[in-house]
Amino acid sequence: MILVLENEISQTQKNKIKNMLSDEGCITREIMDAGRNVIGIIGKTGTSLDEFKQMDGIADAITIKAPYKLVSREFKSEDTRVKIGNVVVGADRIVIVAGPCAVESHDQAMTIAKEVKKYGAVLFRGGAYKPRSSPYSFQGLEEEGLKILADVREKTGLGVVTEITSVFQADLMKKYVDVVQIGARNMQNFELLKCVGRMGLPVVLKRGLAATILEWLMSAEYIMAEGNNDVILCERGIRTFEPYTRNTLDLSAIPVLKKLTHLPIIIDPSHATGIREKVSPMARAAVAAGADALMIEVHNNPDQALSDGPQSLYPEQFGQLTRDIYVIAPVVGKHLDFDYLKKSEMINNMEAKDSKTAAFIGEYGAYSHKASLGYFGEEITPVPMKTFKDIFHAVQTGDCQYGVIPLENSLSGSIHENFDLLQEYDLKIIGEITIRIQHALIAHENVSKNDITKILAPPPAFSQCKNYLDQYPDIEQIPVKATSSAVRHVKDSHDQHAAAIGSTMAAKIFNMNILEQSIEDNPRNYTRFAIIAKEVKGHKKVNKTSLIFSTGNKPGALFEVMKIFSEYQINLVKLESRPMLGKPWEYMFYVDLEADIESPELAGVMKKLQEKSENLRILGRY
Fold first, then answer.
1. Helix or strand or coil: residue 269?
2. Which of 144, 185, 328, 421 makes a 20 to 30 Å CA pair with 526?
3. Per-residue DSSP letter, 247
4. Which among 52, 376, 510, 529 is annotated as catalytic?
5. How many CB atoms neighbour CB 200 within 10 A?
6. What is the average pLDDT across 249-262?
7. Shortest CA distance to 534 belongs to which of 320, 325, 391, 409?
8. What is the C-alpha to C-alpha distance for residues 589 and 569, in angstroms, rounded to an integer?
9. pLDDT > 70? residue 349
10. Is there a contact between 97 and 293 (Cβ–Cβ < 8 Å)?
11. Higher-confidence residue: 423 or 322?
12. Which residue in 227, 207, 195, 217 sits closest to 295, CA to CA?
């Protein structure tokens, strides 16, 4: 069962409850879940639910019905996020784990590691101990392989993942690697499960060759019962009668697991299919189905690989796959961040005096809040601001390290105020993130759509949900400043006849009920956010530049500037004119280029642009 503690519970009361349960032979786990302080109880207690509810400091007592207690959604409603160095598995960013099936040599491992990092991998996989079907097959380099993995981490910054096959390897694993993997054949090796539960390292638990989901979750329970909460479930295909693939990849397990457990899910399409050409399609499908991470086998010379060469992608194929994932991920509310490691290193290298905060518009639960978490993860504290100008001012004065500002929406166009503020303030764009805008109709618990007489939302949200709202012509539409504000207003009003249009994130934050999801007219509703800062830190290699410039008031002036971009084969992804502040009928041009304008090969571009334009400023390289 779980005990939901009162907010004002004292430490003395909490200790009294834990000591009583310990005396009864129960194991307890204390967590924070959805703003609640919860104690999970494993074992039989002689105290009834009603008796617990009468105790000082306890708000509620709830029985966990699932046989897997600590793993279940009943124990923890919020998704678990497993932190591996600077990488978090289970958040908005898709985590890519890549590398060879087996570590064969130092040169082989280092070559592949540099390739997969270049294409977006943030963790490196490689087997040092190889449990093979045949005793005559390559069994791995053992400790020498672990040393190579440790050197890969040292040289590239990639955390390393490898399989543990025996309890006797535990000390070596703790010495050399960041994540241990339980292979499919060891999923029910219970002594090994208990061992990794005590090791203190994150664990990737692969599903057994013919294991049910229940058996798989019970194996995860073994690990968590030993005190290790950092468990990642890995679907790698189950053995069926189908001969055209090595195994049958059960992607239906993803939505099933999302309902049953709070643990993150990684998909291994390499072992599932066993065929190189099938890996990328199944990886793309896994992300669309809701996977948190992918584990992909990559080899620079798969024909000569000592293990599983036929299923290993070439580095270039892996690069194409990650570009595909970059496009697909926003559809399901996630994204692939090619700057993940660089960005995390930059943030973690800040001095203690640095604020480590990011200003955003609106309140907690706003889409800007979601964008800030998506870009920075949990390494930065989001700070709500009332106006866009407040964001720029906070960054300019150093009150906040970063600002997160929307620049354009795919349906409603540019946010002109922010383009004007980019002219006014001496700040730099250091990054960007695009998120999908999915509007939900949100109200109080136990309220149906038939009860709603008014809906609160900002004007753009009403516009984007016009077709849906046209079905309810009698419902009053009340404009407010932001979607998060709308949800808060409905929450605070206690009005059972009011609803708000907002994000599912806002509904969770304010503990409100979602009546209907995705009510926007067009599913291709995306907003691009820019990340602004006083100066650029840690961005040595960039592929995009934002410029602002003006031209003389004469025929062909803009054309002369455009000719420069054409001459150097620079692709423009955005061109927009903005009035010059304080100068009627004079205009500045905002440009996004798919190029690093300060790269050596484009050294002549800036010189020519300065000759053909009157004012020129680089707004950001990212």
1. helix
2. 421
3. S
4. 529
5. 10
6. 97
7. 391
8. 19
9. no
10. yes
11. 322
12. 207
Instruction: Examine the pLDDT at 537 and tell me if it is beyond 60.
Output: no
Residue 139's pLDDT band (cuts 50, 70, 90): confident
Angle at 85 between CA 312 and CA 352, to 5 degrees: 150
Residue 383 identity:
V
Phi-psi region of 179 (alpha: psi -120 to 50; beta: other; left: phi over 0): beta
Query: Which pair of structure tokens corresponds to residue 48?
Result: 């009834």
Dihedral angle, C-alpha 39, 43, 44, 46, nearest 10 °: -40
Closest CA to 549 of 582, 587, 584, 583: 587
At residue 603, the pLDDT reads: 85
CB 507 within 8 Å of CB 370: no
**Pairing mode, strands 440-443 and 428-436:** unpaired
What is the average pLDDT value for the chain, to the nearest integer?
92
Residue 529 among the catalytic residues: yes
CB distance 455 to 478 below 8 Å: yes
Asked if residue 553 has pLDDT above 90, the reply is no
Tell me the per-residue pLDDT of 560-616, one tens digit each, with 9 for 90 and over: 999 999 999 999 999 999 887 777 777 889 999 999 998 888 888 999 999 999 889
Catalytic annotation present for 241: no
Q: Which residue in 146, 150, 95, 98 sits closest to 299, CA to CA?
A: 98
DSSP 416: H
Two structure tokens written together for 556: 């062909």
Lowest-confidence pick of 99-103, 340-344, 480-484: 340-344
pLDDT at 347: 73
Which 8-state DSSP code applies to residue 580? P
The residue type of 392 is: F
CA distances from 481 to 95, 461, 489, 531 (A): 35, 10, 11, 22
Residue 333, Ramachandran bin (φ over 0: left; ψ between -120 and 50: alpha; else beta): left
| Unique residue bearing structure tokens 């349960």 | 21
Would you say residue 186 has pLDDT above 80?
A: yes
Between the alpha carbon of residue 373 and those of residues 339, 360, 378, 512, 620, the distances in Å are 15, 10, 6, 21, 21
Q: In which residue are the tokens 């041009």 written? A: 589
DSSP-assigned beta bridge partners for residue 96: 294
Specify the pTM: 0.84
pLDDT in tens, 225-242: 999 999 999 999 999 999
Whether the CB-CB separation of 263 and 80 falls below 8 Å is answered with yes
CA neighbor of 266 nearest in space, from 84, 112, 457, 466:
84
The residue from 162, 357, 483, 527 that is catalytic is 527
Q: Count of alpha carbons within 13 Å of 487, Cβ hemisphere only?
A: 28
Instruction: Output the DSSP codes for 73-113.
Output: TTT--SPP-EEETTEEETSSBPEEEEE-SB---HHHHHHHH
CB 262 within 8 A of CB 73: yes
